[in-house]
Amino acid sequence: MVKQVRKKSLKSRFLLLFALSLVSILGMSYFLDQVERSPIVLCQSSWGFPKIQGVKYYTKPEKIVVKPWLGQHHVYAVFMIPQEYRHDYLFTLNLPGENTRCGAIKRTNQSVIAGVTAKPEHYLLKGYLNTRIALNLIIQGKLNELKQSQNWQLGYAKKNS
């Protein structure tokens, strides 16, 4: 009788531990997947715009690709930066009448992106805008503003500053 009670108790503890572990693993993987895939970031993030001692320059994109109907990672800008300069980790998108939006920058190590060829002593970067943000702006009738390079901006500075 005591063995049966212990066996049931052990079995119920095991099932409870298994269920908690499963829920924890699934929850954590969902959370990490969302964080990894989402280029939504706060523009106030201090890590996104490193402080520099010297002069900070700003550039506009060489090309903007807006094809959100193809899925994630199809709304981006291609920026070109001189080799001896480092870039911010976030770009800004300033549309008239809208809050400033930010997106994540990714270095690709490619010399050609979306038909843009890097000039000598330069490198290319992709700045991703979240697809949901892009779709929201398109629904509001701001597709033309989204495609205008003067609304996108990326900061950069000398590496030694």
Question: What's this, in brief?
Answer:
With 161 residues, this protein is α+β, with helices and mostly antiparallel strands. Helices cover 30% and strands 30% of the residues.
Number of strands: 10
Would you tell me the overall average pLDDT? 83
Poorly predicted runs of 5 or more residues: none
Rounded radius of gyration (Å): 23 Å
CATH class of the largest domain: Mainly Beta
- Indicate the proportion of strand residues: 25-35%
Q: Given the structure, what is the number of helices?
A: 3
Secondary structure layout plus pairing:
Elements: H1 2-37, E1 56-59, E2 63-66, E3 75-82, E4 85-87, E5 90-93, E6 101-107, E7 112-113, E8 116-117, E9 122-128, H2 131-139, H3 143-146, E10 152-158
Antiparallel strand pairs: 1-10, 2-3, 3-9, 4-10, 5-6, 5-10, 6-9, 7-8
Tags for this entry?
3 helices, two-stranded antiparallel sheet, Elongation Factor Tu (Ef-tu), domain 3, alpha+beta, 8-stranded antiparallel beta sheet, 161 residues, 30% helix
Mind explaining what this structure looks like?
This protein is of the alpha+beta class. It folds into two domains: 37 residues; 113 residues, Elongation Factor Tu (Ef-tu), domain 3, CATH 2.40.30. Helix content is 30%, strand content 30%. It has three helices and ten strands, in the order αβββββββββααβ. The strands form two sheets. Strands 1, 2, 3, 4, 5, 6, 9 and 10 form an eight-stranded antiparallel sheet that branches. It has a two-stranded antiparallel ribbon with strand order 7-8. It is elongated. The termini are far apart. The model has no long low-confidence stretch (mean pLDDT 83).
